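Chapter summary example: a protein plus nicotinamide-adenine-dinucleotide.
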Amino acid sequence: MTTILDGKAVAADLRQNVAAKVQRFQAKAGRLPGLTVVLVGNDPASEVYVRNKGVQTREAGMLSDEIKLPESTSQRDLLNVVARLNADPAVDGILVQMPLPKQIDTQAIIEAIDPMKDVDGLHPVNAGKLAQGMEALTPCTPLGCMILLEKAGVEVAGANALVIGRSILVGRPVAGLLLAGNATVTIAHSRSRDLPALCKHADIVIAAVGRPEMVRGEWIKRGAAVIDVGINRVPKDDGKTKLIGDVHYASAVEVAGVITPVPGGVGPMTIACLLQNTLTAACYREKIDPKTL
Ligand code: NAD
């Protein structure tokens, strides 16, 4: 029997949990946690994400602010906005929505954000802390993957985990979290040889590649946990588009012990984990141990 993980339900539970903790945070700190999202340009997908983030932040009882800047914004102007948010005591979390327009050096923006307010967990200080096994703000999608594994009762300690993809957003941090959970971690990437053989040894497969249905059911070890991070928009016969993952779901569901669908698996977890990170950042700033909430 394969367990199909319902990311929507797990994310809804997490949001409720965060909302309850926000009330306890307010009782202790005398204020609400606040998240500011900065959107540069008019990318339609980014606009939808930012709107959803705002709605869910407010639903969790936190303060939400959005700063919209034109596509032509210069690097200096964006750095000034980030500096202002770094200095604003009401702002606990800063999220600059990616991708950024071509004239802006994304890495420079990531490094300009105060690591204490870096709710995306992309700042080298936070990435370095994760690499050293220290407590840190950690990227949201990898956190979501780990929560899904935990909800499914997957034993991470001692497992052979294969992460496919090595981006700073997903692959590397999820590998760090799996290692922190005492898995034996392999990171595969575009130059890896014989991916099917690597998959065959894996008790946990995290696919974060961006290639539709690349990971085939025949590659998967029977009973493995398969977490599909991929979100690929592909054309349908009727001219519309649909979302599919990096895993060939129809064949993988036949062999996996646990699997996430696309859509409705990892996707909904990302914003829920962003809310959790905002609360965690607020706790750090108020010197409250998040575990005591
Ligand atoms: P990316 O393009 O930055 O990284 C892709 C990685 O895949 C690279 O490290 C590359 O080495 C590796 N790769 C490419 N071809 C490969 C191959 N043939 N074999 C093995 N590895 C290969 O992408 P990303 O930002 O890490 O995102 C990956 C996927 O996850 C995308 O589909 C993206 O849309 C999705 N995503 C989903 C969420 C979510 O909320 N669910 C969040 C972020 C990203």
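Key point: The chain has two domains: 29-116, 140-268.
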